[in-house]
Amino acid sequence: MKILLVCERLGERDDEGIKNLARALLAELSVRHEVRAFTRGQWPGREDVERLPMNRFFINRRLLRAAREFAPDVTLYVPWTSGTPPTFFRARMLRLATRRPVAIYLSQPYELPGWQKLVARRLLPELVVAMSDNVVRQLAQLGAETEFVPAGVDLERFRLPRPEEREKQREELGIGPHERFVLHVGHLNRRRIDAEEVARIARLAGYRVMVVGSASTPQDPSLVRDLVDAGCEVVSEFLPNIERVYGAADVYLFPTRDQRSSIGVPLSVLEALACGLPVVSTRFEGLPRLFPATPYVRFVSTHEQMTQALAEAPPGGAARARELVEDLDWRGVGERVERYLAGIVARSA
After folding, report:
1. Which residues, including other chains, have CB under 8 Å from residue 319's CB and lie 6 or more apart?
2. Chain segment 70-97, per-residue pLDDT in tens
């Protein structure tokens, strides 16, 4: 197949979920197909990625001409803003330009209000792939063909550390032998992180809390100050070897409740599990569908439950935690998306 992949940001650093999703799909689909990607951001050195102007509605002659001239069999659009009316309008513009089917991969959940449902119903593409059961259900009710597909994880990069590696990584970070190291990785904003909740954990005796923020998205300086004042360690610059921090931690905390603050299956949760790190999480979007409650994935609703789950989590570096994501590698995700794309191509022939 000739596949056109469109994402507003493919960018340089791999420190943001939607960007990483699009980059992984580009890599996996390119193994077996002719794939070209359009983006408005920078990605030097990639001949298969073209930087093009992209306004809110994709009404741009250069963009649409390039899409038409590539003449794809199918377009896969990975939007930066998830299933809003402008998202569906942009997909429709790609459909009009190429005159071939379009699939949208919706990574973030979004609840369409009543009037927006009417707009979306008239603009639905041939396929909607989503990481949220709520999104799949809502758009299916509007008449869309929908599929649930989670994010994936690089199982070679994110792996179980050997005991001596783990000990060395903890020494490098200055973690004491009796400290319980709690880690969170994600955007430094208050929709993602409840500062007071995380601060109460940092104040517990014997706990050390680190928050590693995305360097390519806006950061809230007041949130950083609140976390630091509570005793958290905040890393706001890009960490190219974040897998070493996962390997050193005792437990991964995903405390997020706001559905618009993360993709439906947070990459950091998958990466933590791949490194053998037990996870304590809210019941966030696609996570309960993927993972039954076990000692290695505990879902919590209150601060008291969170504190108890963090205290009871098994030690890090656990092979049984990694087993939970062994079928979620990017290759498998790419093959599922490829299969669904081939289906809509066949039906449009």
Report:
1. 160, 276
2. 999 999 999 987 889 999 999 999 999 9
